[in-house]
Amino acid sequence: MNGIGLSVLIVTYNAGADIETCLQLLATSRINRPYEVILVDNASSDGTPERIAYGFPWVKLMAEQTNHGFAGGNAVGLKAAQYDTILLLNPDAFLRDPEVLAAALAHLDAHPDVGALGPRLIFPDGRHQVGDAGYEPRPLSTLVHAAGLSGRFGLRGLYLASRQARGRTAVDVDWVCGAFLMMRRAAIETIGGLESPMFLYGEDVDWGCRLRDAGWRVAYLPTIAVIHLQGGSAGVRSARWLDGLAEIYRLRNAGRFLSSPAFFSGPLRLGFTLRALAYGFAGRLKHRPDLAHRAEDMRRFSAHLRSLRS
Q1: Exposed, middle or buried: residue 135 (CB in 10 Å: 0-12, 13-18, 19+)?
Q2: How many domains in the chain?
Q3: For residue 199, what pLDDT band results from cuts at 50, 70 and 90?
Q4: Per-residue pLDDT for 210 more than 80?
């Protein structure tokens, strides 16, 4: 029997200075119940475990000799966790608002059928970070996302669009981002723990969809905001997230019509290409470097999808 409280699990791999900022802000958060912080280091070579051991003695450090990946690292941490509520927190997720944890816990307490929840993720400049929650990868949601119609006419795409993240009430979704993912231990147990066929990227989508299969609700809380660097301080988002999403698409649609990876990658590649053209044109017209950077991201994602077509 696990006690009532919060176990925060953080998995690091060459986290740099991000993890120190993460822990400093976590220490100033209001947590109205017993809690612990367990950090699983996946064999970092940049001195992360040594810095944590020296600067944060209140953190339970598990310095692994093997890189277990995101799911594997959290599974290691879960075995050592002693409380009934589990928070998966990325080292580059920053709790600037000290009330975030208390608000998330209060929502979980008030809704016993919610097995997992997550907040609105934002960039340091306050912009909404698309990819913080969404719906199961299916042929329709893939087409909706590729066409840029997420949230329009009641359509559900792969991700919640920024217009959907502006509400004042919780939204039922199929998954929330693992950068800040609060779960009931009881819900985790119904899906067999935090194991996943994904090594990195897509685990959160896998867990959320399986929680929904098991009868739990997954909630997105747009009134709670957490800063997420998404890819580290360099701000360059890896295209590898598409690999994880493609694998989830394959697993969730096995044996169904349009389950081929070619269908998944084809519409998305077309959508990214058209968005690259639109962002590039708008960036030049309005002299906005940020739009030029978004165009480059779209081109990079489109190019990456070529390898997923077979």
Answers
A1: buried
A2: 1
A3: low
A4: yes
